[in-house]
Amino acid sequence: MKKTQRIAVIGAGAVGSYYGGRLAEAGHDVRFLVRRDYRAISKSGLNVTSPDGDFQLERPFTATDSTEIGTVDWVVCALKSTSIKDAQKLVRPCVGAHTRILVLMNGLGLEDHFAGWFGEERIFGGLAFTCINRGSPGNIHHLAYGTVTLGHYKNDPAEIESALTLWSGSKTSIVSASSLLRARWEKLCWNIPFSGLCVAGGGITTDRIMSDANLRAAAKALMEEVICAGNADLAYHGEKPGIDRDTIINSLFQKTSTMGAYRPSTMIDFVEGNAMEIDAIFAEPLRRARELKVNAQGLALLTALLKSLNQGR
Amino acid sequence: MKKTQRIAVIGAGAVGSYYGGRLAEAGHDVRFLVRRDYRAISKSGLNVTSPDGDFQLERPFTATDSTEIGTVDWVVCALKSTSIKDAQKLVRPCVGAHTRILVLMNGLGLEDHFAGWFGEERIFGGLAFTCINRGSPGNIHHLAYGTVTLGHYKNDPAEIESALTLWSGSKTSIVSASSLLRARWEKLCWNIPFSGLCVAGGGITTDRIMSDANLRAAAKALMEEVICAGNADLAYHGEKPGIDRDTIINSLFQKTSTMGAYRPSTMIDFVEGNAMEIDAIFAEPLRRARELKVNAQGLALLTALLKSLNQGR
After folding, report:
1. Which of A295, A303, A308 best tests the B interface by mutation, with the highest count of B CBs <10 A?
2. Whether A297 and B300 lie within 8 Å, measured CB to CB
3. How much is the pLDDT for B36?
4. How far is the C-alpha of B164 from the C-alpha of B168, rounded, in Å?
């Protein structure tokens, strides 16, 4: 793989701008599909504050139409999962014969769409564990964390290697997942209980769940459902049902106990009145749990409430 | 029993004012313990609008301290269950050797407190199925329904008869319950799923639950938990576990389908920012379900969320 890669960032919200910015900072030719903040970024560039080092892209390549970007080596699709229906149209103009696509989005099953549209071998998934907010147009605030877990749709080690190479020169902490599907479910083991309860509990931060015996027990019960559903889904896909119940419960509760008053992105969407990513994070896992006849009573209740809270957004 | 009874209404909110008013209208000597609206009622009386006939009490007996009321034939305690800790102190001055006490409150286990304070034989429970709001001070708006189910703490038929006699001359629809505990649980079969989801779903009306497949399924799953817990609790108390699953599910869903955009009182509390009656309606049933080893996964999750939403109120 040649050193400088041409990269299309589709969906330059907080996450796309930040990680695309890090790739540009590392010397890649990064081209941003920008909708809301096009004027501001064209005028004043992309400005990022971060505990890993602030940076500015003075004149980033921005486009309001993917055809202006053309075909690239890598597509980083960082759309909100609520825009999944637009993804094919937005990504297609950037996809050539050898283009790889990194689905840097929240939730389950999104890579399946991309694999159907563009072929399985070129599809990767990225799971960002981070806290990044948009400030005023063109300004991105990376507040904490930032590690991205990368996996390949077919779990091909050589392909994972190529993805790691892309990121190797950048100020981004990357870990690889030997099973993308397991990585997605492991992230849901945190996201479903903690993001879900932070929203349905009234827009609370994670520390409130940790310090409230009822909410904590509810989080654990939900996590157990997700673990069972995840293992059943892995087995269904011919993979080892390798999510170890006790290990993941202990590690996620331990990790959350150090996070303080953390605001999950779904909770930020909730309190700011934006559409929440309910389908990909809650409804699709629930659908699979039901299809696999796994108990998902709590998840079903939580999903029904979140859909109700999301109505009209 | 002499025809005119002296009655203390403790807690003259919407429900206490309305039903106390109906008893006064029927000729009883009704004395209201009034806190918030004392001045307005002293000045302009108690004014009630109702589909069953408007009425006014021009100069009702009002007191701000129960000792001014003195001992009575009947105490109707219509406090919000969130004030249960104040009930003993407020009721005691009205209780003589032969005073009977009607606990006209929402939730489970409240009569147990009164039985402990004042003795079992004199305790009755009343379950109001109604929609009554407070207007400006001294004004009560009875909007719909209104039937009260009456039971005796020890299910003594002669005592139930005496309670029915009290109400017989009033414009109130009364039905008697052969088991007070079963009546309480049957009301919870509606209240837990419908009030709970109306709140946690974001302050929605019951028609939203009925028309949304996910919420409707969640309501049914919760109702099934409550039915199991109720039957286990009845058996534990030496009563017949007589809540028939299919009958009650069909009847409550049928009834709710005719209610339109109904706002349960807990949902009104929620949207108006008032304290919700979570302990008596949700936490106590959950506590019993857990003690009786009945599955209450959904109820546990819902209760944790409602407690979180209730925090600081």
Report:
1. A308
2. no
3. 86
4. 6
Residue B133 Cα, gap to closest chain A Cα (Å): 25
Reported as a single tens digit per residue, the pLDDT across A78-120 is 999 999 999 999 999 999 999 999 999 999 999 999 999 999 9
Contact A221 B300 (CB under 8 A): yes
Name the closest residue on chain A to residue B204, using Cα atoms: A308
pLDDT for the residue B3: 81
Asked whether residue A144 is assigned to any structural domain, the reply reads yes
Residues of B classed as catalytic: 187
Which one-letter amino acid corresponds to residue B288?
A: R
Domain membership of residue A227 as a residue range: 182-310
Tally of domains in chain B: 2
pLDDT digits (tens, 9 = 90+) for B192-243: 999 999 999 999 999 999 999 999 999 999 999 999 999 999 999 999 999 9
User: Does some domain include residue A1?
Assistant: no
Please state the three-class secondary structure of chain A as a single string.
CCCCCEEEEECCCHHHHHHHHHHHHCCCEEEEECCCCHHHHHHHCEEEECCCCCEEECCCEEECCHHHHCCEEEEEECCCHHHHHHHHHHHHHHEEEEEEEEECCCCCCHHHHHHHHHCCCCEEEEEEEEEEEECCCCEEEEEEEEEEEEEECCCCHHHHHHHHHHHHCCCCCEEECCCHHHHHHHHHHHHHHHHHHHHHCCCCCHHHHHHCHHHHHHHHHHHHHHHHHHHHHHHHCCCCCCCCHHHHHHHHHHHHHCCCCCCCHHHHHHHHCCCCCHHHHHHHHHHHHHHCCCCCHHHHHHHHHHHHHHCCC
Hey, CA dihedral for A103, A108, A113, A115, is it positive or negative?
A: positive
Chain B: closest CA distance from residue A144 (Å): 26
What does pTM read for this prediction? Answer: 0.95
Q: Chain A, 181-210: which have a CB under 8 Å from a chain B CB?
A: 197, 200-202, 204, 208
Give me the residues of chain B with pLDDT under 70, please: 1-2
B152: β partners: B124
Quick one: B32 and B153 in the same domain?
A: yes
Residue of B nearest to A295 (CA): B297
Residues of A annotated as catalytic (active site), given as ranges: 187
CATH number, domain containing residue A227: 1.10.1040.10
What is the total residue count of chain B? 313
Please give the ipTM for the structure prediction.
0.92
Please judge whether B298 and A302 are an interchain contact, meaning their C-beta atoms are less than 8 angstroms apart: no
CB contact under 8 A, A221 and B301: yes
Residues of A in contact with B222 (CB under 8 A): 301
Going by C-alpha positions, the residue among A158, A60, A77 that lies closest to residue A111 is: A77
The verdict on a CB contact (< 8 Å) between B304 and A215 is yes
Which residue of chain B is at minimal alpha-carbon distance from A298? B298
